[in-house]
Amino acid sequence: MKRFIKILCLTFALALPTNQLWAAEQQSATSNEKEDIVMSEKIINVGETLSDFAESSGIGKMLNTENEGDWRNIMMIAIACLLLYLAIVKQFEPLLLLPIAFGMLLSNIPGANMFHESLFAGGHVHWGDFYANAGLLDYLYLGVKLGIYPCLIFIGIGAMTDFGPLISNPKSLLLGAAAQLGIFATFIGALALGFTGPEAGSIGIIGGADGPTAIFLTSKLAPHLLGPIAVAAYSYMALVPVIQPPIMRALTTQKERVIKMPQLRTVSKTEKIIFPIMITIVVALILPDAATLIGCLMFGNLLKECGVTERLSKTVQNELMNIVTVFLGITVGATATASTFLAWGTIKIIVLGVIAFSIGSAGGVLLAKFMNLFLKEKINPLIGSAGVSAVPMAARVSQQVGQESDPGNFLLMHAMGPNVAGVIGSAVAAGILLSMLG
């Protein structure tokens, strides 16, 4: 029995290392398998991460047409780059065209989430979703949507405008009014092409060649068309030296182009102070819807002319004007998204905008010719084209075309009368359209 126990113990002692070795081998194999699994998971995770990164990139989103991708974004980025080129190299209204183009560039990069059209769908702000989803440009766009930026721009324009030529020659107010003919003619044409009343009014205001007025009215009547209309308005303002001269030459004779007008009388300081106050009261009482733009314009002018607020006048003309111009341009450009801008409606807007601007330029010239039938002191019809409110470019074009026929004929100051009258006229026209369609 003792011998049997000794043999059993010896056998157990010999078998124990073998079992430990097998267990160690099993544990090592298990450990290797775990390492392989972990390594495999890491490889899978890296692959998924790279795949997710590619899908979340702007290029990935642009190519993912099932989600938010759209090949038209590429077209809009190309258009934005073209506008940047025109602003920087060709210097077409660079102070506004450059911010507009850059805003267009930012809003058309998929995934950037800087501007969301859906937050402003239906013409009003969706405040419930705004705080959770709004991007930077959405917040800045509130200044356009609420009508703040255009009004501040008008204060700056008023502070930089001299109404002396208009006060000196009140007849030029009629020429500025005649140049608004393009607004209402194009309004009728847009209705005929199937646009709604508010859309047609917003398109027609392009004929006034006044960017802030176009933005203000469009933000009230047809905010979904703000991008195309703003780009069209400022583009045509920059193209005044190209569009107007052929129209002016076609509607006038050589004899009319060489008419010399007498020097304007000197306007007193009292007249310049009373003028903005009187215009504000008269226009606001007759057409309250125009009071916002006219009031801001005349307030800025009063700061300049009164002589006791020089610091405010300089601030409005420089710092305020520059800051608001940046915010206005970049947010208006942001509204030119691919889905809105690349549509047949945009092409119609651009064509109608040219027609509106051309009719407006022709209207002033034709009224000047008509007035000459009854006036002893003739008006050079070339100054009538300055009735569009592209200040002071339209007046410079009148001067340039006049000097082509007679280098000694100086029409600039005479043309400034209809030019600043056009600023008032376009604001009044916007008020009329707003009261009719708003």
Give the SSE layout:
Blueprint lengths: L1 H55 L1 H6 L8 H17 L5 H14 L19 H7 L2 H10 L2 H13 L3 H5 L3 H7 L2 H12 L4 H8 L6 H11 L4 H13 L1 H12 L2 H4 L11 H18 L4 H15 L4 H25 L3 H4 L2 H28 L21 H13 L6 H26 L1
Describe the structure.
This protein starts with a helix and ends with a helix. Mean pLDDT is 85; it is low at 10-16 and 18-25. It is globular, with a radius of gyration of 34 Å. By secondary structure, the chain is mainly α. The chain has helices at 2-56, 58-63, 72-88, 94-107, 127-133, 136-145, 148-160, 164-168, 172-178, 181-192, 197-204, 211-221, 226-238, 240-251, 254-257, 269-286, 291-305, 310-334, 338-341, 344-371, 393-405, 412-437.
How would you concisely characterize the structure shown here?
The protein has 438 residues and is mostly helical. The chain contains 22 helices and no strands.
How many DSSP E strands?
Answer: 0
Uncertain runs are 10-16, 18-25
Report the span from N to C terminus.
116 Å
Number of helices: 22
- Describe the main β-sheet briefly: none
Kindly provide the radius of gyration, computed on alpha-carbon positions and rounded to a whole number of angstroms. 34 Å
